[in-house]
C-alpha cells in the first residue's frame, strides 16, 4: 500500500503545534504541581528563593494541620450536601424550563427566553446585597436553604439544555403523542433519556461551580458549622499574610471531589464544552 | 368523668409550669476575624463575660480575615449588623463619616465608663470628630526587629536605643551578603503599602496626608526626603525591590525566611516570628531621623465597635465594657497579637512579663509616649490605591520620587 507522505512544511507545522501545545499544557499543569510541592514543604521552606520544586525536607504534616485546625470534615460535608442538592435541583428546573423554551409554543416564548438569557449579563456582585436582603426577609440567613435555593435556577443551564433539546427530532415526539403520551410523558420518557449527555455535562458544570462557590456562602452563613469548604479554606489566609503550605494542603484535599467527578464524567464534560461553546465557564 | 377532668386540668397546670421557659437570654452577635486557632481566647472572653452576665449570651461570627470587611459591610447594608464588630484602625476613618458605627459616648455616660487607665496615645486614637466610636482591643507600636545570627555572621554589633538613621543605614549596608551577583541576605526589607514606611515618615515629621488633612502630604519636603532614603536603599541593593519582596508574601516573610537582617515590626508580626524556632532575633526602638530629632513611632489600634443598627445595643455595650476591663484586656493580651490598652497591665503580666522572644518586648511599650496614631481619613481606600499605582515604579528607581509624588498629588486632588 502506498503510504501518503507528509510534506516537509506540514511536518514542521505539526512539530510547532506540538511544541506550542506542550508549552500551554505545561503552563496549565505548573500551578497544580506547585500546589502539590508547596503542600509538602515545611513552613520555613514555602517561600524560599530561588524556589524549590522538590520539597526538602518533605512533610505530610500540613495535611494534618489543615484537617485539624478547622473542622475540615464538616466543611467538606457541607459542601457536598449543598452541591449535590443544587445539582439535582438545577437538573430538574433547567430541564423543565429548557423543555418549555425548546418544544412548547406560547406567545412571547422567544422574548422571554432572551430576557432570561439576559440575566447572564448581570455580574453576580451587583445582586449580592438585594439577594442578601431577600434572604433576610425570608428568614433564611445562616441556613443551608440560603446556599441552595438561589442557585437552584440557572439561565446558563436552561440555555445549554434548550440547545440540546432543539436537536432532538420532532418525529420522535409526534410518534409518542400518537401513541397517547402526555406532555409530561414526552419530557420524561422521550426527551430526558435522549439528553443524558447534556444533563451529565450540566451536572458537571454545576458541581464544579457550586463546589467552588465562595462569596455567596461567605455572606449568608455565619455559623462555622454550616460553612462550605471554600469559605473554610480562607481561614488559612490572613489579612496581610498567608500560610501557603497549610492553605495549599487544604486546597488539595478540597480538590479531590472535583477531580473524582471530572474523572467520572470527563467524556461528557468535553462534549458539554462542544455543546455549549462555553468552555471555561 | 369529673374526676378525670380534674386530673387532666392538674396535669396541664403542672406541665404548663414546668414547661415555662427560663427568662430568655439576650443574644449578642460578635463579629471577629480571629481564626479557630486563636478561638480559644474568644471562648475565654465569652465564658468570663457570661459568668458575670448570665442574662446575656455571646455568639461569635468568625469571618475569614481576608473577607472580613466584605461580609461585615454586607451585614450592615442588609440590615442585620452584628452587635459588636472587631475593626482595624484604618477603617475607623472611613466607617465613622459614613455613619456605620454607633457613638459610644452616650453609653459611657449612662454606665459611667471611663478610659483613665489607658495609654493616653490609645485614647487619642479612638476619639474621632468629638465622638468615641470604638474601644481598643489592643494596640501596637513599631520597633526594628533584627536577626542576631545574621548580625553575628557579619560581625556587626547589635543596635542600641538612641541610634540614628545614619547608623541604621551603615548597619544595613554592612549586613548585605552577596553570592556572586545574587544577594543572599539584605540589610533591610520594607513593604510598599502605607504600613511599610509610615514609621519613617513619622520619624522625619511627615505623614501621608498634609497637616490640614486637605490632600496628599507626600510631596512635602520631609516626606520626599524619606521616600528618597528608602528608594536609595533599594537602588543600592540594601533592600529588596518590591517585586522580590512579594515573592516572600511581604517583607515580614523575608525576615522570617532570614533573607533580611532587619525589618520594622509590629507586635502581631513579632508574634509570628516568635513561633519560628530557628530564628534568633530581638528588637530595638526605631532610629532617630537625625541626632537632634524627636523619636517617633506609628500607633496602630485594633478596635471593638458597635455598628449602627445593633439590635441589642445595651447588652452589646456591656460586652464592650467587659472587653476593656482588666480581665478582657488580659485575655486578649495573652494572644500576643497586640499590647493591652491598659498601661499597668501592659507593663505587667499581660505583655512585658510574657515569656518568649523577643527579649526586649518592653521597647514596644517604652516608645508608646512618642507614638502617633495611624492617619485616619475618609478617602484612605482610594488614596492608598492611587499611591500603590503611582509609586509602583518609584521604589526601584525607574521613576523619580519628585515625579511620583507630584503625580500622586494630582491624582488624589479630587478626593479631598
> Which CATH-level-2 architecture of the largest domain in chain B?
3-Layer(aba) Sandwich
Tally of DSSP β-strands of chain A: 0
CATH superfamily of chain A: MetI-like
Task: Give the overall shape of chain A, derived from the CA principal axes.
Answer: globular
Helix content of chain B: 40-55%
Q: How many whole angstroms does the radius of gyration of chain B measure?
A: 25 Å
Name some characteristics of this structure.
heterodimer, A: mainly alpha, B: 416 residues, D-Maltodextrin-Binding Protein, domain 2, 2 domains, 6-stranded mixed sheet, 41% helix
Brief digest:
Chain A has 281 residues and is mainly alpha-helical. Chain A contains 13 helices and no strands. The two termini of chain A are 47 Å apart.
Describe this structure in words.
The complex is a heterodimer of chains A (281) and B (416). Chain A is mainly α and 281 residues long. In chain A, 68% of the residues lie in helices and 0% in strands. Chain A is built from 13 helices and no strands. Chain A has helices at residues 8-39, 61-69, 72-103, 109-118, 128-138, 144-148, 155-166, 170-178, 183-194, 196-211, 215-220, 229-233, 244-276. The longest helix of chain A is centred in the C-terminal third of the chain and has 33 residues, at 244-276. In chain B, the strands form 4 sheets. In chain B, strands 1, 2, 3, 6, 12 and 13 form a 6-stranded mixed β-sheet that branches. A 3-stranded antiparallel β-sheet of chain B has the order 10-7-11. The N and C termini of chain B lie far apart (85 Å). The interface between A and B is medium-sized, with 29 and 35 residues.
Amino acid at each position: 500500500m502506498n503510504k501518503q507522505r507528509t510534506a516537509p512544511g506540514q511536518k514542521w507545522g505539526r512539530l510547532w503545534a506540538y511544541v506550542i501545545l506542550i508549552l500551554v499544557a505545561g503552563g496549565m499543569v505548573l500551578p497544580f504541581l506547585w500546589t502539590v510541592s508547596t503542600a509538602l514543604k515545611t513552613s520555613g521552606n514555602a517561600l524560599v528563593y530561588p524556589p524549590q520544586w522538590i520539597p526538602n525536607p518533605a512533610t505530610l504534616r500540613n495535611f494534618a494541620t489543615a484537617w485539624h485546625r478547622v473542622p475540615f470534615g464538616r466543611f467538606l460535608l457541607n459542601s457536598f450536601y449543598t452541591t449535590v442538592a443544587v445539582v439535582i435541583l438545577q437538573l430538574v428546573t433547567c430541564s423543565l424550563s429548557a423543555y418549555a423554551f425548546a418544544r412548547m409554543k406560547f406567545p412571547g416564548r422567544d422574548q422571554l427566553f432572551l430576557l432570561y438569557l439576559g440575566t447572564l449579563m448581570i455580574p453576580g456582585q451587583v445582586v449580592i446585597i438585594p439577594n442578601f436582603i431577600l434572604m433576610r426577609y425570608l428568614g433564611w440567613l445562616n441556613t443551608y436553604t440560603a446556599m441552595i435555593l438561589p442557585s437552584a435556577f440557572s439561565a446558563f443551564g436552561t440555555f445549554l439544555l434548550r440547545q440540546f433539546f432543539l436537536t432532538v427530532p420532532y418525529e420522535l415526539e409526534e410518534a409518542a403523542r400518537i401513541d397517547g403520551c402526555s406532555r409530561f410523558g414526552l419530557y420524561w420518557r422521550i426527551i430526558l433519556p435522549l439528553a443524558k449527555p447534556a444533563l451529565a455535562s450540566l451536572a458537571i458544570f454545576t458541581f464544579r461551580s457550586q463546589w467552588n462557590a465562595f462569596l455567596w456562602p461567605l455572606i449568608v452563613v455565619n455559623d462555622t458549622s454550616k460553612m462550605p469548604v471554600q469559605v473554610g479554606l480562607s481561614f488559612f489566609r490572613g489579612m496581610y499574610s498567608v500560610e501557603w503550605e497549610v492553605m495549599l494542603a487544604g486546597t488539595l484535599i478540597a480538590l479531590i471531589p472535583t477531580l473524582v467527578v471530572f474523572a467520572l464524567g470527563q467524556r461528557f464534560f468535553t462534549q458539554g464544552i462542544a455543546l455549549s461553546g462555553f468552555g471555561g465557564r | 368523668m369529673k374526676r378525670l377532668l380534674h386530673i387532666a386540668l392538674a396535669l396541664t397546670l403542672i406541665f404548663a409550669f414546668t414547661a415555662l421557659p427560663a427568662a430568655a437570654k439576650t443574644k449578642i452577635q460578635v463579629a471577629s476575624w480571629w481564626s479557630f486557632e486563636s478561638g480559644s481566647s474568644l471562648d475565654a472572653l465569652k465564658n468570663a463575660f457570661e459568668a458575670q452576665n448570665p442574662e446575656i449570651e455571646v455568639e461569635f461570627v468568625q469571618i475569614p480575615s481576608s473577607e472580613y470587611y466584605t461580609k461585615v459591610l454586607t451585614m450592615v447594608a442588609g440590615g442585620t449588623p452584628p452587635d459588636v464588630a472587631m475593626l482595624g484602625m484604618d477603617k475607623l476613618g472611613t466607617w465613622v463619616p459614613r455613619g456605620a458605627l454607633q457613638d459610644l459616648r452616650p453609653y459611657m455616660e449612662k454606665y459611667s465608663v471611663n478610659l483613665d487607665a489607658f495609654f493616653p496615645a490609645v485614647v487619642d486614637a479612638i476619639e474621632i470628630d468629638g465622638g468615641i466610636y470604638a474601644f481598643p482591643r489592643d494596640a501596637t507600636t513599631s520597633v526594628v526587629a533584627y536577626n542576631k545570627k545574621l548580625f553575628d555572621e557579619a560581625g556587626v554589633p547589635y543596635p542600641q536605643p538612641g541610634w540614628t538613621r545614619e547608623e541604621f543605614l551603615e548597619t544595613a549596608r554592612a549586613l548585605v551578603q552577596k553570592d556572586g551577583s545574587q544577594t543572599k541576605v539584605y540589610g533591610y526589607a520594607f513593604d510598599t503599602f502605607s504600613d511599610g514606611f509610615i514609621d519613617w515618615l513619622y520619624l522625619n515629621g511627615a505623614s501621608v496626608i498634609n497637616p490640614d488633612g486637605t490632600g496628599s502630604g507626600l510631596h512635602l519636603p520631609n516626606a520626599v526626603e524619606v521616600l528618597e532614603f528608602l528608594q536609595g536603599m533599594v537602588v543600592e541593593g540594601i533592600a529588596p525591590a518590591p517585586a522580590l519582596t512579594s515573592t516572600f508574601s511581604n517583607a515580614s516573610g523575608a525576615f522570617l525566611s532570614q533573607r533580611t537582617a532587619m525589618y520594622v515590626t509590629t507586635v502581631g508580626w513579632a508574634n509570628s516570628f516568635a513561633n519560628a524556632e530557628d530564628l534568633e532575633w530581638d528588637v530595638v526602638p526605631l532610629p532617630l531621623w537625625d541626632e537632634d530629632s524627636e523619636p517617633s513611632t506609628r500607633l496602630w489600634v485594633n478596635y471593638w465597635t458597635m455598628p449602627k443598627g445593633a439590635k441589642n445595643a445595651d447588652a452589646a455595650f456591656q460586652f464592650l465594657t467587659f472587653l476593656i476591663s482588666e480581665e478582657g484586656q488580659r485575655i486578649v493580651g495573652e494572644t500576643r497579637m497586640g499590647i493591652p490598652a491598659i498601661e499597668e497591665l501592659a507593663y505587667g503580666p499581660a505583655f512585658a512579663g510574657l515569656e518568649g522572644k523577643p527579649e526586649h518586648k518592653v521597647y514596644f511599650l517604652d516608645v508608646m509616649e512618642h507614638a502617633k496614631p495611624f492617619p485616619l481619613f475618609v478617602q484612605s481606600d482610594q488614596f492608598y490605591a492611587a499611591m500603590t499605582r503611582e509609586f509602583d515604579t518609584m521604589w526601584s528607581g525607574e521613576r523619580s520620587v519628585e515625579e511620583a509624588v507630584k503625580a500622586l498629588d494630582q491624582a488624589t486632588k479630587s478626593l479631598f
